[in-house]
Amino acid sequence: QRVLRLGEMCRRMETEEEKVLPFYLSSLEEEEQQDARRVLKEPPTEPLAQALRDYTRLERFWQRFNKAKLEEQALERTREDLRRRNRHLRELLRQYLAGISVSPEMFREPNPL
Question: Which pLDDT does position 5 carry in this prediction?
Answer without folding.
Answer: 84
